[in-house]
Design goal:
376 residues, alpha+beta, Elongation Factor Tu (Ef-tu), domain 3, 6-stranded antiparallel beta barrel, 4-stranded antiparallel β-sheet
Amino acid sequence: MKCFAARPVRCLKAQSRQGLGLGLALSIAAAGVACRSSASDPHAQGPPAIPVKVEVAREAPIRDSTDYVATLKSRDSAVIMPQVEGQITAIYVHSGDQVQPGEPLLQIDPAKQQATVHSQQNTRAAQEANLKYAQQQYDRTSGLAAAGVVSKQELDQAKSALDAALAQLESLDAQVKEQQVQLRYYKVDAPWSGIVGDIPVHVGDRVSTTTALTTVDKPGSLEVYVYVPIERSPQLKMNMPVDVLDGEGKAIADSRVSFISPQVDNATQTVLVKARIANRKDKLRQSQFIRARVVWGMRNSPVVPILAVSRIGGQYFAFIAEPEKNGTYVARQKPLKVGQMSGNDYVVLDGIKPGDKVVVSGTQYLVDGVPVAPQS
């Protein structure tokens, strides 16, 4: 294209448009060549691999166990109930007091019983006088019979009256003793040494033989009552390990099964299992609800670090570095079924097998299928 001096600006614009069009065409052609080269080159570079730290999933011996809610009960805990009815007139102890055997706990009004005992004693005294008179009559009749003054029949009658008076006195003696024993029940004593529990009654309350006054607990061993579902009852055996756990899942006492009920609870369809534990330092309490772990046996299972496991929507996941055919690795997200914790590891029931390279760092940057560079 020729340019004249009269049109210099127009000529420059035209040349610029021609140069721009030629450069764009060359760029497109170069890009097409590069794309074809990249598609045909098997050694072309993809996205860079993300360096991650991995640990090899190992198989470890794990205790096969199940946790249950259990109840603690004491064989040395007495629920104190009165043996008589009446009104409480005095309470001698407070909750938490240490008591000795025979120490008085409460007093029930004994006035009525004292009157009964006094009446029985008076009746006995009257009968004792009757016995003394019958003895005198017998002695007199016996002397007269020996002299032939009275008949043998009169002597036998005197002897019979004496025997009846003696028998009546012995009967009254037994009644007086019975009422005196009954009188002792109006003072409620501690059956053994121990600690007084809650006292739900007050002075002035009327109690009966079914009223719980308090408890006296001996410090010492307790029994764990575990209710195992009937489905697992065939696996129950005597001397199986049982652990008592605290709120953090740590074992605070260990024991072994000492009793397996031969019957099934009809309401809950469970089998009662008992295990004795030593109550060291009185950390546990009578009637306390606790967690008990029944150990069924040992088995080998893969374990993975807790840091490698994430939870999404109630499902557990972990990434493993999976090898490719060309020697590289990619991250694969595996759904897991985990069991209990063992130290700083999860016991894996399903999803990972021993030998898998489990990613333990940088998992927040990973997606399924991304290249990774494992670092032990």
